[in-house]
Amino acid sequence: MHGAKKEESSFSSSNRGRILKEECGVVGVYSFDGKDAAPLIFYSLYSLQHRGQESCGITIIDDKLETKKGMGLVADVFDFDKLSALEGYFGVGHVRYSTCGESKLENAAPFVVSHSQGYLAIGHNGNIANSQDIKSGLEDLGEVFVSTTDTEVIAHLIVRGFVKTGDLVSSIQEAMRRLSGSYSLAIATRDSIIGVRDPLGIKPLSLGRIDDTYIIASESVAFDSIGAKLIRDVEPGEIIVIDKDGLRSYRGLRRTKTAHCMFEYVYFSRPDSILDGKLVYSVRERIGEKMAEVDDVDVDFVMAVPDSAIPFALGYAKKRGLPYREGLIKNRYVGRTFILPKQTARELAVRVKLNPLTANVKGKRVVLFDDSIVRGTTSARLIQILKDAGAKEVHMRIGSPPIISPCFLGIDMPTKEELIASIKDVEKVREKIGADTLKYLSLEGLMGAIGKDENQLCMGCLTENYPIPTDQREQEKLVKYL
Ligand code: SF4
Asked: Is 202 close to ligand 1, i.e. is its CB under 6 Å away?
């Protein structure tokens, strides 16, 4: 289901160098006032780069469809010449991190399928849990697949329905009934842009506007980058179609509850994005406040592992009336490909990336915030670095509850056996990482900080209560109608 596991190293291919990997980012642009779509998509993808760094692509529709894609970062793949060659006022874009399918150019998106009545270009953020079953069913019916992605499975499902009925919206509705998993889609046809969000709203998707140009994007921060304004979130289960007749909304599939990924708030999304009505930065500050309400450890100051844990630490410090100070300085220029295979080399690598500010930490008792503990090795290294720099006490605080189970909805995680919190209790984890004390955010604190409850959030990796069936037989029921 997931792609190859990555080493736990501060120097893996993620731009933030962490073990939990974002999935993908999607963008769709339709300009009624004749703006070139390619530069708008380019800058939107630029601001969604944190969601995927392996490959990226842009498809623009004019009289014909034109796609440019490549391996690497948006700024590396696209130059002036490539963007200039993409002329047209609507199209879609994608940044990819492979949670499904290998990291190779054939799997880069947007994925284009040609059919008897035209073509369809599709970018997908998420993971389809039953994609292999659907794919096998479609292969039995004669469909041929050229990639190993679930994006292609979605594209074939939609195209198959469309070729039969000539009705794109009903084909998407039918595909949504077959698909089990998480998906936010940006689709381009020869005359429209379509945004689709899965019925549980697991992955984010927003709608924005600048003048007479509409943008659909994984996160609202994409709108900021091009001077557009957030209109609203795409509703869970909603299909938005934008074509020459304007913007229309259709109900794809209705559910009585939602399951927004809690990790989008804790870690994955940019802090300046607004997800389902909540500014991510404020949620992270509130997480720190919630943890401060149940903590009385005596320290000299509060610090964070930069960057994602900083708002937790600021919220915590403010609530407890403690100073916030920097204790680890991040080297922002460490290359993506700087992967050091041996354990000793990796330890050196952590030091290259995060250097202790000895003058601040020497002789001090500190609270150190991070967003998660996965295997525990990174936390252990960081605490050791601080102690080597003279820190008297390091009290670790984690802005999420313990991760006890993998995600199969689009986040790349280690196996259950590798997740330290699934095999050790809090005290054993504390011992392993060498912290003086260790506290995690509670589930109640998480829900309180986000302002959503268990009927609105996915917390599957924390509770093992996943919002969709994980049982293989249950998955099979979903494809029996093929
Ligand atoms: S299982 Fe965890 S990481 Fe996966 S979608 Fe649910 S909350 Fe997000």
From this structure: yes
